[in-house]
């Protein structure tokens, strides 16, 4: 009997020691220790970074170029070949993409956990690459409209899927820099997209095809190749990382996420849960914030070359001048991503970037000299790019559970799609190349977004304050607070 009691005591001591090791958190904030030492932890996180971020960043960069190269093709001869200068044809071609994009956001994120991240994202990427190749062979604006609709359906789930997957792998204050790095690749590649598009237009006449068609054909072929390759690289959710991580490493990743926010394991995504999550008013504030971020982004993507042409630059010069502002955007995006993670703050930094973007658009529209107007493009594009990963990190930091994360990332990106629709209808062809309606609509929505961010941050501050004073729980978890 004494031996049994002694053995039970030893087992209890062992269990307590294991529990202590699981709950131990280092004073230097390197994170919890779960059976592997600090150096091993850093190697695991670095492996995740290198395996996950580059391939998703490259795949999304290509998808973003695919959807925004329309403006480059427009000034390279597509307008004349497809008769897009008649009525509102170009506006329709731009807008139908976003209608499809919005409708299929949530359905795509529902499919992703069931199909697997690698399978679904690679399928979407290869599909919209194939559609892009088809766009290079269109002979009428109606066919181009159908292709753009299909492109919207396939691209709908790509960015929310990437965002969903990334936020499932990292702690809350690691997400900002990771999303900024992910987005940074699209910023850098966009800097060269115009130059690459110009190079492709030099194929004009090859095999009897005009230069603008080669933009779609070559970029579509590259998209298919990269996304098929991505199928072999993308890793799934932490609980399914058996082939990538050892059992100890996998448990470490799961435990550190649970320690940070308590939602490493996936919960089933049902219609009942979707409807429940959609009742959260904060999701619509973030969706509006992302709409206010993508609106100027799409405006610059689709109409920047046209605005530059209106300043007196040739089509070739406009394409080349579109690239340099993205270099500033890359630096500002990474710095602000690091800053928001370092100081655990999101809303105010996003608001500053949105304000500078709005000012940049006003300078672009109303500057008296071409130099001043081009500086406005630098200001607008340079400070705009952080807003999108910033808003995505803002909402990811303030939600819990896989199911809500899937719904929140999709609804947030629905707002992003609405920004594209507003850009396509407010930047009227009849007002080219100055677009006063589009400029002022963008400015007004940007200011409204800043106000909503302030309201949300005040709400978060009050809830956090009350929880700290009373010892209450937020989102069902002790010592978990909203990120301002």
List keywords for this structure.
single chain, about 475 residues, mainly alpha, Growth Hormone, Chain: A, 20 helices, about 75% helix, globular, disordered N terminus
Task: Give a verbal description of the structure.
- The chain starts with a helix and ends in a 14-residue tail after the last helix.
- 76% of the residues lie in helices and 0% in strands.
- It has 20 helices and no strands.
- It has one domain: Up-down Bundle (Growth Hormone, Chain: A).
- It is mostly helical and 484 residues long.
- The N terminus is likely disordered.
- α2 runs antiparallel to α8, α9 runs antiparallel to α10 and α19 runs antiparallel to α20.
Brief write-up:
The protein has helices at residues 2-23, 38-68, 70-82, 89-103, 105-115, 117-135, 141-155, 158-169, 175-201, 211-230, 247-260, 271-277, 281-310, 315-321, 325-342, 347-366, 370-384, 387-397, 402-426, 436-470.
């Amino acid at each position: 009997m004494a031996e049994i009691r002694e053995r039970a005591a030893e087992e209890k001591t062992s269990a307590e020691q294991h529990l202590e090791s699981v709950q131990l958190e280092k004073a230097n904030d390197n994170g919890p220790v779960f059976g592997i030492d600090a150096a091993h932890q850093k190697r695991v996180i670095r492996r995740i970074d290198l395996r996950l971020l580059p391939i998703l960043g490259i795949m999304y960069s290509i998808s973003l170029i695919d959807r925004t190269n329309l403006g480059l093709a427009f000034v390279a001869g597509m307008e004349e070949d497809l008769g897009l200068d008649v009525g509102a044809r170009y506006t329709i071609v731009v807008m139908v993409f976003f209608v499809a994009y919005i409708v299929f956001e949530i359905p795509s994120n529902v499919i992703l956990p069931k199909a697997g991240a690698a399978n679904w994202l690679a399928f979407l990427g290869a599909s919209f690459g194939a559609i892009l190749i088809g766009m290079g062979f269109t002979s009428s604006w109606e066919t181009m409209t159908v292709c753009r609709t299909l492109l919207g359906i396939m691209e709908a789930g790509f960015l929310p899927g990437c965002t969903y997957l990334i936020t499932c792998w990292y702690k809350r204050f690691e997400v900002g820099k990771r999303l900024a790095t992910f987005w940074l690749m699209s910023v850098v590649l966009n800097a060269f997209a115009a130059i690459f598009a110009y190079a492709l237009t030099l194929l004009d006449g090859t095999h009897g095809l005009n230069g603008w068609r080669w933009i779609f054909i070559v970029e579509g072929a590259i998209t298919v190749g990269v996304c098929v390759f991505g199928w072999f690289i993308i890793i799934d959710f932490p609980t399914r990382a058996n082939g990538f991580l050892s059992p100890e490493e996998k448990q470490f990743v799961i435990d550190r996420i649970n320690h940070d926010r308590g939602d490493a394991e996936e919960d089933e995504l049902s219609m009942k849960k979707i409807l429940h999550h959609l009742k959260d008013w904060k999701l619509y504030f973030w969706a509006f914030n992302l709409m206010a971020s993508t609106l100027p982004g799409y405006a610059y993507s689709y109409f920047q070359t046209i605005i530059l042409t209106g300043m007196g630059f040739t089509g070739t010069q406009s394409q080349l001048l579109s690239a340099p502002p993205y270099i500033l955007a890359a630096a500002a995006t990474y710095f602000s991503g690091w800053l928001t993670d370092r100081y655990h703050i999101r809303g105010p930094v996003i608001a500053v970037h949105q304000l500078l973007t709005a000012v940049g658009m006003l300078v672009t529209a109303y500057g008296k000299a071409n130099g001043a107007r081009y500086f406005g493009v630098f200001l607008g594009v340079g400070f705009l790019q952080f807003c999108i990963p910033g808003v995505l990190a803002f909402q990811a930091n303030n939600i819990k559970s896989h199911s809500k994360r899937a719904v929140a990332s999709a609804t947030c990106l629905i707002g992003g799609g609405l920004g594209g629709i507003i850009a396509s209808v407010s930047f009227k062809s009849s007002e080219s190349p100055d677009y006063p309606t589009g400029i002022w609509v963008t400015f007004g929505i940007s200011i409204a977004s800043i106000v909503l961010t302030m309201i949300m941050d005040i709400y978060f501050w009050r809830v956090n304050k009350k929880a700290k004073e009373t010892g209450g729980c937020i989102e069902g978890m002790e010592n978990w607070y909203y990120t301002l």
